[in-house]
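About this split. The held-out portion is used to measure sequence recovery: a designer receives only the structure tokens and must propose an amino acid at every position. Recovery is the fraction of positions where the proposal matches the reference. Here is one held-out target exactly as it appears in the evaluation file.
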């Protein structure tokens, strides 16, 4: 695996490289760690390392570096290698035959997907030295799907490795966990993430990079998403502008603020997904889509009130998340009592719960805005 393509996780990389070097590769791994921390990226790099055509006689662990140029590496990267699969949670939308929606509210690993994977695993390898099947969000399997997959884990094909990823291992069947080698992924250290991202996005202002790194909290995938999608950064900026204006807002402005939140959720979805697919999903299941992206909107708002809480308790405090707004935050902080900031954070957590409980999205957004104004 190319360490240059992965930020952090050096201990995990060494374990995987050693397995590739010795040929003692388990039939199943379980990668456990927060969302967007790099689990899937490492899994794909591992698949390339096991099958890279340039790796014919590696002598040391350091030699295990896929070339990223041979046919195997390129096709695995593109997801078109016949002996490689990347299976992700999907949700079926009934309009325009949209059927491949990843990272959306209610997305699951379906029994049909598992059966297809099991059938593929029963065939002989086509071109690879070792077939690799990656299943992300494996905790979203329902019981029938999990039981069907468990049978394959109990009698695995000798030339196949399954790499499962999860952020919620407690939701998995214990028997699935027991049949996997478990590797833990932790948030990437800030200095490692900063060096990695600064080399790839040199035009990003230092203050903005600091804010993105703080928001990502070691989840390098989320930081890359923010850096690659400038529209998402603009939405974040608009949300923080709205938060700043709440300090002087009258309670009657809650309707407008609530509309802005819902509008921001729609813009966030469109900015973060392929345009045609995003529009189809909005048409097919607008409420479900907006609930998905509203969670990110609430997380952005939480960073603002967290910073205000920090500064209201100590005007000289370091460790702000929104470093690019430090001057504005320091000007506003004296107008906020710590209890008001704490209450705002509680209201944001409450709306997270309301989203899970299927509350009316627009009414919940307007109620949140009112509470943030009058708290």
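Reference sequence for scoring:
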């Amino acid at each position: 695996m190319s360490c240059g393509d992965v930020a952090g996780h050096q201990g995990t990389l060494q374990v995987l490289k050693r397995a590739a070097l010795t040929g003692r590769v388990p039939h199943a791994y379980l990668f456990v760690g927060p969302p967007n921390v790099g689990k899937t990226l490492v899994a794909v790099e591992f698949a390339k390392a096991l099958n890279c055509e340039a790796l014919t006689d590696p002598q040391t662990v350091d030699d295990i570096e896929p070339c990223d140029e041979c046919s195997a590496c390129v096709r695995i990267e593109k997801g078109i290698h016949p002996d490689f699969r990347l299976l992700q949670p999907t949700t079926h939308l009934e309009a325009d035959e949209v059927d491949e929606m990843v990272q959306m509210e209610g997305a699951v690993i379906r029994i049909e997907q598992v059966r297809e994977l099991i059938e593929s695993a029963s065939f002989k390898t086509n071109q690879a030295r070792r077939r690799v099947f990656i299943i992300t969000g494996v905790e979203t399997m329902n019981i029938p799907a999990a039981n069907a997959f468990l049978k394959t884990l109990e009698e695995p094909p000798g030339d196949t490795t399954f790499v499962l990823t999860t952020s919620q291992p407690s939701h998995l069947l214990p028997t699935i966990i027991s049949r996997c080698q478990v590797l833990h992924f932790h948030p990437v250290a800030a200095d490692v993430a900063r060096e990695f991202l600064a080399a790839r996005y040199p035009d990003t202002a230092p203050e903005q990079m600091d804010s993105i790194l703080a928001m990502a909290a070691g989840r390098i995938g989320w930081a890359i998403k923010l850096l690659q999608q400038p529209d998402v950064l603009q939405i974040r900026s608009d949300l923080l502008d709205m938060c700043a204006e709440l300090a002087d807002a009258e309670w009657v402005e809650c309707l407008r603020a609530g509309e802005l939140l819902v509008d921001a959720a729609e813009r966030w979805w469109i900015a973060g997904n392929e345009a045609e697919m995003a529009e189809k999903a909005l048409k097919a299941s607008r409420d479900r889509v907006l609930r998905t992206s509203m969670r990110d909107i609430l997380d952005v708002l939480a960073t603002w009130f967290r910073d205000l809480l920090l500064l209201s308790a100590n005007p000289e405090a370091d460790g702000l998340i929104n470093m690019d707004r430090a001057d504005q935050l320091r000007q506003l902080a004296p107008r906020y009592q710590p209890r008001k900031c704490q209450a705002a954070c509680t209201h944001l957590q409450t709306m997270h719960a309301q989203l899970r409980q299927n509350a009316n999205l627009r009414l919940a957004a307007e109620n949140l805005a009112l509470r943030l104004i009058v708290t």
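Annotator remark: The longest strand covers residues 160-166.
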